[in-house]
Design a protein that fits this description.
Elements: E1 2-6, H1 13-25, E2 30-33, H2 40-50, E3 54-58, H3 66-75, E4 79-81, E5 85-89, E6 92-96, H4 103-116, E7 121-123, E8 131-135, E9 138-142, E10 154-159, E11 164-169
Parallel strand pairs: 1-2, 2-3, 3-4, 6-7, 7-9
Antiparallel strand pairs: 1-10, 5-6, 8-9, 10-11
Helix pairs in contact: 1-2, 2-3
């Protein structure tokens, strides 16, 4: 299964539209948003454009309108949950979370989670920095900053059959 992984869209609807078009063209079956969508209308834009068969949003620290986000997720047949979320896909155990506190704290926590080897992958956001590496055979993946606030906007793809991922920089107009 091909999973689209995005994070930290922060209501940048232009970048969300670019990402959604790309994710749909790549045949993403499952979409995971790792938090900080911010407003329900941004989530609606994303889900109506990608039309994934399955969807999970992990709330981030800037997702204050949880009721609206949850309603938009459920309209698309998905769910919106507090972190951490364990996804069981294709016989894989994937831990998804947003993050918390300073970026170095989030990185330390997710590295420890990967070190535990309890999951096949640990997906996270919050730091606005893309991260793709393996720790003791566990994939550690942050798709980066979809909003483009702190750098070039990016997303990620994860193939659950091979547990290989790739980061994709978005071609957006300023």
């Amino acid at each position: 299964m091909i999973i689209g992984v995005v994070s930290d869209s922060h209501d940048n609807r232009g970048n969300v539209r670019v990402a959604a078009k790309l994710l749909r063209s790549l045949g993403v079956e499952y979409l995971v948003h790792l938090g900080d969508v911010v407003a329900p209308f941004t989530l609606r834009d994303l889900l109506e454009s990608v039309k994934p068969r399955r969807f999970t949003l992990v709330y981030g620290n800037n997702d204050g309108e949880k009721v609206g986000l949850s309603l938009e997720a459920s309209k698309a047949g998905g769910r919106a949950l507090d972190q951490p979320v364990v996804l069981k896909l294709d016989g894989r155990r994937i831990l998804a979370l947003h993050g918390f506190g300073a970026p170095d704290v989030t990185r330390e926590v997710v590295e420890s989670l990967a070190e535990s080897r309890r999951w096949d992958a640990v997906l996270y956001g919050h730091t606005h920095e893309a991260d793709f590496r393996y720790i003791r055979g566990v994939l550690l993946l942050n798709p980066g900053d979809l909003s483009g606030q702190l750098g070039k906007p990016s997303i990620a793809l994860l193939d659950t059959s091979t547990m290989r991922a790739r980061l994709i920089d978005l071609d957006v107009k300023d």
